[in-house]
Structure formats: structure tokens, C-alpha cells
Write a structure and sequence with these properties.
Blueprint: H1 8-14, H2 43-58, H3 62-74, H4 79-88, H5 91-97, H6 104-112, E1 116-118, E2 121-122, E3 135-138, H7 146-154, E4 164-167, E5 172-175, H8 190-197
Length: 199
């Protein structure tokens, strides 16, 4: 699997997003503080940059990104909004949004290691798509892990969006509604991504 080993803070600066969007509250970078850039970027460059930003935030590869676009295009409604909905309802992202893990990367690893149940059944696929009404819970055997103990005692690591709810005591959460672009805590110009893929 392709791994980008470039520092997270540097990539955050490149895509003009706060490291807190990814769950890194203490990361920052002072390199290239003048933000020296070339003259005006081309239309293609803006589209590519926005697509790369989306892939970086959600931790997906190009093949997965293309698949999400193709699926979003087949759904009724605005393709860009559909892409946001499909990405936000990935199991690893929902676990992160519930505050059960500090970063999406950590959430993906914990899902892969089968620490979570969806509606009482073990699921170890990070890209598994949750639906409205689904209950995501931590397996009984996994509740002694420090990360989950911290959530139970101190609360979630970040603010929880309105489309999910967390039961802190039970270490479980429920999907109340499908997310929209208004629920994002970062800026993403999905119209540029749609333009990039529609060529």
C-alpha cells in the first residue's frame, strides 16, 4: 500500500488546513512562513490541489477516491454533496467523529484490528458504510485499552457533530442523520473535485 511519509504539519500547511482537523492539536509548522508561491495557479492546479486535500484528510488513495466519485455520480442529487456524505459515513471517519479515537489514522487502525461492533456485529473494514440508525460500539474485550478509558473518563477528544450522538458511559454512538457539507469542520471546494474527475 502507498504511504505518504511527508510530515503531517507540512501537508496541512500546503493544503491550508489546521492540523486540528486531523486530530493533531499540538502540531504546527514554521517553515516557509512567508508562504512564497508562484504567480496565480492554473485551474487544473486548483482542482488537483483540492482533490489531494480531500484524499489527505480522509486518508484514502486515488483508486478509493475515484470509486467514491463514481458512486456519488450515480446517486440522485448534487455529486459533490454525495461525495461528502459517502466519505463522512465511512466507519473509520464515524469512529473519529464520535471522539472514540483521536485521529482518523488511529480510527482506521482500531477498526482494522476489530475493536468495534456495528449493530452488535464485528466489522473490521475501515471503508464500511454506516447508515442512519446504525449503532457503533466498542467491543467488550477492547474497553480496557487506554484510548477508550480516556474517552470514558475525560470525554471525547473533539467536538461531536450533530449528525451522530455519543453514549460516553457505554462507549457507543449512533448515526442520527446523513452528514452534509455544512457539517464539515474544514473548508472543501467539492465542485473543483467534481470538475477534476468529470474531465
Amino acid at each position: 500500500m502507498a504511504i505518504n511519509r511527508q510530515p503531517v504539519a507540512r501537508r496541512c500547511k500546503k493544503y491550508d488546513i489546521s492540523p486540528q482537523v486531523l486530530g493533531y492539536s499540538k502540531k504546527e509548522t514554521w517553515r516557509n512562513s512567508q508562504n512564497n508561491r508562484r504567480k496565480k495557479a492554473s485551474e487544473y492546479s486548483l482542482q488537483l490541489n483540492e482533490k489531494q486535500k480531500m484524499k489527505f484528510i480522509y486518508g484514502i488513495l486515488e483508486k478509493q477516491s475515484r470509486r467514491v466519485y463514481d458512486e456519488a455520480e450515480r446517486l440522485p442529487g448534487v455529486t459533490g454533496e454525495n461525495m461528502i456524505m459517502l466519505l463522512e459515513t465511512r466507519l473509520d471517519n464515524v469512529v473519529y467523529r464520535l471522539g472514540l479515537c483521536k485521529t482518523r489514522k488511529q480510527a482506521r487502525q482500531f477498526v482494522s484490528h476489530a475493536h468495534f461492533l456495528v449493530n452488535g456485529k464485528k466489522v473490521n473494514i475501515p471503508s464500511y458504510r454506516v447508515k442512519v440508525g446504525d449503532v457503533i460500539s466498542v467491543r467488550e474485550k477492547s474497553k480496557d485499552i487506554d484510548v477508550f478509558k480516556s474517552v470514558k473518563e475525560e470525554g471525547p477528544a473533539q467536538l461531536i457533530p450533530k449528525w451522530v450522538e455519543l453514549n460516553q458511559e457505554e462507549l457507543s454512538g449512533k448515526v442520527l442523520a446523513l452528514p452534509t457539507s455544512e457539517d464539515l469542520d474544514f473548508e472543501l471546494q467539492y465542485n473543483l473535485i467534481v470538475e477534476f474527475y468529470s474531465k
